[in-house]
Amino acid sequence: MYWRRTCSSLIILSVLLLTSTCKSPGPTPTSDPTSTPAPTPTPTPVTSEELAVSSPDGKIQVVLILEDGAPYYQVSYSGLKVIKPSKLGFKFKSNSLDQNLALVDSTWQSVDEIWTQPWGEVKDIRNHYNELAVTLEESTAAQRRMGVVFRVYDDGLGFRYQLPEQDALASFEIMDEETEFVLAGNHRAWWIPAYGNERYEYLYQQSSINDLWIVETPLTMETSDGLFLSIHEAALTDYAAMNLAASGADTLQCDLVPWSDGVKVRASTPHQTPWRTIQIAENAGDLITSHLILNLNEPSKLEDVSWVRPGKYVGLWWAMHIGKYTWIPGPWHGATTRNAKRYIDFAAEHGFDRVLVEGWNAGWSDLGEHEGEGFYFTVPYRDFDLEAVAAYAADKGVKLIGHHETFGAVANYERQMEAAFELYHDLGVDTVKTGYACSGKCIRRYDESGALAGLEWHHGQYMIRHYRHVIETAASYHLMLNVHEPIKDTGLRRTFPNMLTREGARGQEYNAWSTDKGNPPEHTTILPFTRMLAGPMDFTPGIFDLFFDEYRPQNRVNTTLAKQLALYVVLYSPLQMAADLPENYAGHPAFKFIVDVPVDWQDTRVLNAQIGDYVTIVRKDRNSEDWYLGSITDEEGRSLETPLTFLDAGRTYVGEFYADATEADWKHNPLAVHICEALVDRDTTLRLELAPGGGQAIRIRPATQEETDRILRYQP
User: Which residues contact 150 (CB under 8 A, 6 or more apart)?
Assistant: First the structure.
């Protein structure tokens, strides 16, 4: 069926191949800002019936085809099928835009440039792609138009729809986006379910594609040909989030999160969708170092980003989750002036930038009654002097992280948000942690009269718009954001760098109170290849008291202590928390690694990787010549060989090792850690011995002459 063609389709496609324009942005760097530009290739037809565009290295090819007036696309990698012919188009409330289409225009361009992140897992990112943009028009009387743009990179591709301004489609309601991903096999996949009460906060499962139902993105897969794929989206702004629904053999269908009345997207033309993204790699580690999602977002809209600063923080958060303190006022209230000052003193002593205080504002005591509608974001409880605490922090060279839990009462928050942000700005608070901790379809939306209009999902268009509004408003007050219960990351941090980090996955807190005994050891060996392909996560590592028997004896953290250190490197965030109680760090030599490890990186490389089993990541500090290595494993012990060929030639370094001790084991002896120093260089190959459920963290810094003479060379 797919390969049949109508005469009209053949004529239109053949003519357009001769008349399509080729655009180039002019001289741009190929690998560095001073290099000469690569020659601009010409559009590549696969046959006289199809338009195609390939990646700069030629390995990935995307083909657009019209089959009897219906648009399809397909993708191959080095000649191997990745996506078989798959549908494109829309179903609107009153009709569809997925058939009776003819190709009326096409343009092609190549872009090669380098842009610099104000903060990130690498400093400079190459944005190198070939683009095919087509315009399709209905052959019916309405003659509605739809554009499709394909950008193809060496590490994958993105495509999006464009609906230009037109009388026949002035405004619209999308009931379904027809986008398909017909895979070339029943691949092995790592996934979490969509539409659950816990949003994205689930343990990952592993199964074949055909055993799925509806799942969240990023969805990561391994093919029988040895390729690794991840499907996600980029630049989600005024649209519904995309899930993926299994719909036939080896086929995934775009599933947009609906409004409460069933409509998926409401908009008017001109409008464009988020990018649908497919990352493609020959090994799992290359998924982690792909910058496809970021590259498909717009450049920063903030002219001045000097106020946007990554950093590390401490706070009352873990003490509240294990039950030492409460959010509610009373004898165990955590957010008191006294407690806040104690944490500020600890932060100042050890060089942490910020202190998080939760539960300071009125509304927590009767939360179960008002369900977030009674929160006041400018009114502190009587035992917390907000102005005095902010002044005390400033005097110590520390900043407060403000906290706004909404409990999903978005309208209440939006009424107060501007005043709350202004208050923080005036007090010198430069970071806000927001929260939307309600379950399932729980966001209350009101109409203009104040009546309840519907209950919305966290990830529908209504909330997408809200989160964007919060980001933009925060930026106007020079406030950075750490969002919990967020919209999933789609690279918007490039456009708004004040969007520092977010939760959006099952984090450390589940180890404190979850009835399923917390996160298993393999959980953090899956996150870098799934959730974290989307962007940074506030996982909150650094727990030293792994049992906390005094507060919750039925729970514990299912790692070794050394693995907690390694997570600072493996799980990237520009805002990292030293999550444990200050008294649990006191006098512990391993705490030095948390004090030393940066959060802003010049370079990132993956040295060992197998999804769900182990991963080794090394990152170079943006502000020094130091490298930091983190390696973690699942419940199995590992011995991983790791060459240090990334180090400068002819230079000697000191490796500061924080390793699982010989007898360490996450179940029976998780606190055993071995700390030592040894000289290393680029010819050194480390043998990383990881205990079951364990890890290893290493700081690698240039050696002084005195250290070169004194410290022994590394011996495996």
Answer: 53, 62, 64, 73, 131, 132, 133, 157, 158, 159
Cα 474–Cα 478–Cα 483 angle in degrees, nearest 5 = 40
Do residues 91 and 253 make contact, with C-beta atoms less than 8 angstroms apart? Answer: no
Full DSSP string of 84-102: EEEE--EEESS-EESSSEE
Q: Is residue 286 part of a domain?
A: yes
- Quote the tokens at residue 280: 């493609």
Percentage helix, strand, coil for the chain under 3-state DSSP, each rounded to 5: 20, 35, 45
pLDDT digits (tens, 9 = 90+) for 586-643: 999 999 999 999 999 999 999 999 999 999 999 999 999 999 999 999 999 999 999 9
Phi-psi group of 140: left, alpha or beta (phi > 0 → left; psi -120 to 50 → alpha; rest → beta): beta
DSSP state of 54: E
Q: What stretches of 239-283 show up as alpha helix (H) in DSSP?
A: none
Compute the residue count for the chain: 716
- 583 burial via Cβ count (<10 Å: 0-12, 13-18, 19+): exposed
Evaluate whether residue 536 is within a structural domain. no
- Each residue's pLDDT tens digit, 345-404: 999 999 999 999 999 999 999 988 889 999 999 999 999 999 999 999 999 999 999 999
Residue 431's φ and ψ, nearest 5 degrees, are -140, 140
How far is the C-alpha of 48 from the C-alpha of 574, rounded, in Å? 49
Contact between 161 and 273 (Cβ < 8 Å): yes
Range of the domain at 240: 7-295
Provide the residue type at 283 as one letter. N
Task: Give the alpha-carbon dihedral of 55, 85, 241, 231, to 10 degrees.
Answer: -50
What value, to the nearest 5°, has the Cα angle with vertex 173 and ends 167 and 179? 105
pLDDT tens profile 276-321 = 999 999 999 999 999 999 999 999 999 999 999 999 999 999 999 9
Q: Strand 21-23 relative to strand 101-116: parallel, antiparallel, unpaired?
A: parallel
- Who's near 241: CB < 8 A, 6+ residues apart? 233, 256, 257, 459, 460, 464, 487, 488
367's CB contacts (< 8 A; 6+ apart) are 328, 374, 375, 407
Q: Are 525 and 633 in contact (CB under 8 A)?
A: yes
Element (DSSP H or E) covering residue 156: strand 156-163
Q: Examine residue 86 and state whether it is found in any structural domain, yes or no.
A: yes
Whole-structure pTM value: 0.93
Q: Tell me the three state secondary structure of residue 381.
A: coil
Query: 331 in a domain, yes or no?
Result: no
Report how many domains make up the chain. 1
In the three-class reduction of DSSP (H, G, I as helix; E, B as strand; rest coil), residue 366 is classed as: coil
CA separation for the pair 64, 500 (Å, rounded): 37
Does residue 543 sit in helix, strand or coil?
coil
Please report which residue ranges of 503-559 form alpha helices under DSSP H.
Answer: 510-513, 523-526
Catalytic residue numbers?
509
Strand partners, 176: 91
On whether the CB atoms of residues 391 and 444 are closer than 8 A, the answer is no
User: Percent of the chain having pLDDT more than 70?
Assistant: 93
Q: The domain spanning residue 215 has which CATH number? A: 2.70.98.10
